[in-house]
Each structure stands twice: as structure tokens, then as C-alpha cells.
Amino acid sequence: GADVPFMRPAALADDHTGTMAVMKHAIQWFGDQAKPVDHACCIYATAPFIQPQYLRAGFEMLEATGKSFVFSVTTFPFPIQRAIRINKAGEVEALYPENNLVRSQDLEGAFHDAGQFYWGKAGAFTGDAPIFSNISAPIVLPRFLVQDIDTLEDWRRAEFMYQALKLSGEIAT
User: What is the C-alpha separation between 23 and 124, in angstroms, rounded?
Assistant: First the structure.
């Protein structure tokens, strides 16, 4: 029963098309309908714990800072400087061996894209501006509200998180 103003063209409706191309198309479509937009927000369907207050804060920050984009970020749960990989021989090796003896609490915290929403000025989306740069500002989300769903394991984790968030009153049912 939803009202869908337009459908994406097939070229933009596959598993490999990026957010910027989709947003550019949507903004241009509205412009072609004589309904130009100044700001746009992309909300990912794979972000089940998105909260209205963070969406509002994102828009307010976009207007207040004059940045081209504002998007959701969260912290990594463990310092990325202590990351390891499994090499072709099946052995473990440190990505940053210089940090092997540094206590984890002494390493700088790092953030990643939370994959919930991207506010932007229409011209930044249509002009292909680089979102992961100094023209953007972050809205920092608590990790317990961030779960991107790309796999069945992600889905299962989201179900557990939903039950915990519902019981704690963090989200409405």
C-alpha cells in the first residue's frame, strides 16, 4: 500500500550499485518533476535499529556545520591496531606488529560507517563529492544500536539484539 513515486532503472537496481549513484538518480528524478530538493537522506533498509533522534540530529548537524554530508558512525569494539590476519599458509600475523606489546586501552579508538543513514546536500550527491572526507561530519551512535544486515549471521544477531533492546526499553516495539 505504499506510494512509490518512481522505480530505479534496472542499471541501478543490482547488488553492486553504490549509494551515491542511487541518490544522484533520485535527486535528479525529483528535479525533472519540477520538485527540486536541497537536502536528501538515504536510509538503509539493512539498518533495523535506526532511531528518529539520530536522524534529526544528522539533519540539524548538516544545517549547522555547513558540511556536505553527515552520516552515522560507531566505534570498533576493539582497537584496529591489534588486528590480525590469517595468511595463505593458514598462519596468524599481525597487521600492525608495532602494536603487539601496546596495551589495547592505550591505543587510539577508531570509528566505522554505521551504515544507517547519509544526509547530504543535493549538490554534493549529484556532484559525486567524496563522502568519506573532510566535507562530512559524523553522528556517533552507540554500538548497541548498530547492526548492518548483509548475511544470515547478521540477521540472527539482529534478532538477539532486538530482543535485548526491547526488554531494556531502548527501542519501542
Answer: 10
Dihedral class, residue 78 (left if φ above 0, else alpha if ψ from -120 to 50, else beta): beta
**Residue-averaged pLDDT of the chain:** 94
Percent of the chain at pLDDT > 70 equals 99
CA dist 127 → 23, 26, 29, 71, 118 (Å): 11, 13, 15, 18, 15
Per the listing, cell 582497537 goes with 79
| 42 neighbors 109 (Cβ within 8 angstroms) | no
The whole-angstrom separation of Cα 36 and Cα 122 is 9
**Do 171 and 51 contact (CB within 8 A), yes or no?**
yes
Could you tell me the CA-to-CA distances from 24 to 73, 80, 93, 137, 148 in Å, in that order? 22, 33, 41, 20, 23
**What's the pTM?**
0.88
